[in-house]
């Protein structure tokens, strides 16, 4: 579902990703861990086409976002093609990023109507189902500012699901929440991962969650994957000293 082949990403003179290779299979839940600044968020932003690669090949659902021509020239997909690929991807951010001037219902129906071309009635019916799923069917008419952080994040998750994504990108989705709200949001995500065939690429500092829900965990350092293993293996008996010291620092 996601393939990175020899991907490089620089911001000006600063190289963030360097010769990065990995794949994520359909339906897999893959978590990225590693020190702050190691490039994890940049990877999600590349998949979401919020950033453009400097070199290398990225495909999502078999569609190219970039490829290398013979002779080494980088070719990026044009904006129209990127938009088509982006329709299949949902992203949930640390800071929720709900539309502040819209009620919860409109937050959930805006993109399905405008981007997927659904009728308003159909989009509203689906929105109500999703609000049931995330336990907020009494908040249809609330504005985001009237909700707790945990509730806002649930709406953001429902909004991402409303686009029927093949891929869901999770970027430290519990980092901005009060501690007592974290477990509920993680339980919801685990439920969604278990009951749908969505492919997940997740950046999190919640190591218990990563261990519980992931099919694979990739440890990053210096813009490269230094270890890629099943969670029990990576958390219990990592191969690399760098992984061991990182886990000791965060666990
Ligand atoms: P992580 O998610 O692992 O903490 P990030 O992907 O956010 O790491 O950042 C990796 C590196 O890229 C950091 O050094 C960061 O400062 C740099 N970086 C990220 N985005 C930009 C940007 N838009 N401009 C310049 N540097 C950036």
Bound molecules: adenosine-5'-diphosphate
Instruction: Give the number of DSSP strands.
Output: 11
Order of helices and strands: EEEHEEEHEHHHEHEHEEHH
Helix content: 25-40%
The stretches of 5 or more residues where confidence is low (pLDDT under 50) are none
Structural class: alpha/beta
Shape: globular
> Number of helical runs?
9
- Alpha carbon gyration radius: 18 Å
* Mean pLDDT over all positions: 95
Strand order of the largest sheet: 7-8-9-3-10-11
Main sheet summary: 6 strands, mixed
Range of strand content: 25-35%
- Gap from first CA to last CA: 31 Å
Keywords: Amino-acid transport, ATP-binding, Cell membrane, Membrane, Nucleotide-binding, Transport
Subcellular location: Cell membrane
Main location: membrane
Pfam family, one: ABC_tran
